Amino acid sequence: MSRRYDSRTTIFSPEGRLYQVEYAMEAIGHAGTCLGILANDGVLLAAERRNIHKLLDEVFFSEKIYKLNEDMACSVAGITSDANVLTNELRLIAQRYLLQYQEPIPCEQLVTALCDIKQAYTQFGGKRPFGVSLLYIGWDKHYGF
Questions:
Q1: 50: nearest Cα among 33, 37, 74, 66
Q2: Where does 2-138 sit in CATH, by number?
Q3: Phi, psi of 63 (to 5 degrees)
Q4: Residue 1: pLDDT band with limits 50, 70, 90
Q5: Residues with Cβ < 8 Å from 30, sequence gap 6 or more?
Q6: Burial 32-58 (b: 16+ CB within 10 A, else e)
Q7: Could you read off the pLDDT of 37-86 as tens digits, one per residue?
Q8: Handedness of CA 115, 117, 121, 124 (dihedral sign)
Q9: DSSP 8-state class, residue 127
Q10: CA nearest neighbour of 24 among 89, 111, 83
Q11: Residue closest to 85 by CA, chosen among 116, 117, 108
Q12: Whole-number Å distance between alpha carbons of 21 and 41
């Protein structure tokens, strides 16, 4: 019965559930832990890399922490290919802002842009929700760390 309702993100099941969103949340739940710590003079970002498949070589593990620009980074949990798509998009947004305004993008503005992208993939047909969660660290001249 659920098969009729889990192929699209815009169709609710009779119970009021969006199965594609639940699948994305499940992928995030199986990922390793990400931790961010705010100190007086900086921030720390740590991520756990889980070896889910015993036959995978250590060399093929993907990174869980991405540098977005000189002042921002993020840690990811979930589907690695989704993380790569989103972090590449974030880097493009940050570079476009730098090119246009000659100053780094404020952290809040970059996070808002990402939220808009993720919402669009959940709300409109023909796309699936991203199965990745991101934890940001950054510094900007408005808010500091």
A1: 33
A2: 3.60.20.10
A3: -75, 150
A4: very low
A5: 52
A6: eebeeeeeeeeeebebeeeeeeeeeee
A7: 888 888 888 888 766 666 655 554 567 899 999 999 999 988 888 999 99
A8: positive
A9: -
A10: 83
A11: 117
A12: 38
Nearest to 20 by CA among 124, 145, 102, 116: 124
AA letter at 137 = I
Q: Can you count the helices (H) and strands (E) in the chain?
A: 3, 5
Q: What is the pLDDT of residues 90-136, one digit of tens each?
A: 999 999 999 999 999 999 999 999 999 999 888 877 788 898 999 98
Backbone dihedral angles phi then psi of residue 71, each to the nearest 5 degrees: -115, 0
> CB burial class (10 A; 0-12, 13-18, 19+) of residue 139?
middle
